[in-house]
Each structure stands twice: as structure tokens, then as C-alpha cells.
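Hi there,

I know you've been waiting on this one. I reran it after we fixed the sequence typo, so this is the corrected version. Both the input and the resulting structure follow.
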Amino acid sequence: MAQLAFPFQFGLLMCVLLPLCLGAARLIDRVVDNASSRYNPVPKVPPAAVPAEPGKADAGSGS
């Protein structure tokens, strides 16, 4: 590879290094996402407990 001209070196490097970096980034993202959801879980809220938006009438209020 050291004997190749610079554009060929750059192209070969990008063909090899870019997919490796993208794969490593996806792996790190999944590991961090799993760790954060495991150590800081989002509480489950049942749909009935969600408050209505202020200023909007209920569907059953008849207004």
C-alpha cells in the first residue's frame, strides 16, 4: 500500500476504515443504549393515567 499513489491509498483506506468505524459506532451506541436502559429504566405509565392537555375538552363531556 505504501507504493501506491496518494489517491489510491486514500480510496483503499476509506473502503476499509469507513465501514469499520460505522460498525464500531453502531456497536458502541447499542451498548450504551442497553446500559442506560438497564440502569435507569423509564417508568411505565398506563394510558389512563396520562393527564389531558389543558384547554381541550374531554370527548365524553358533551361540549
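Quick highlight: The two ends are 77 Å apart (CA to CA).

Best,
R. S.
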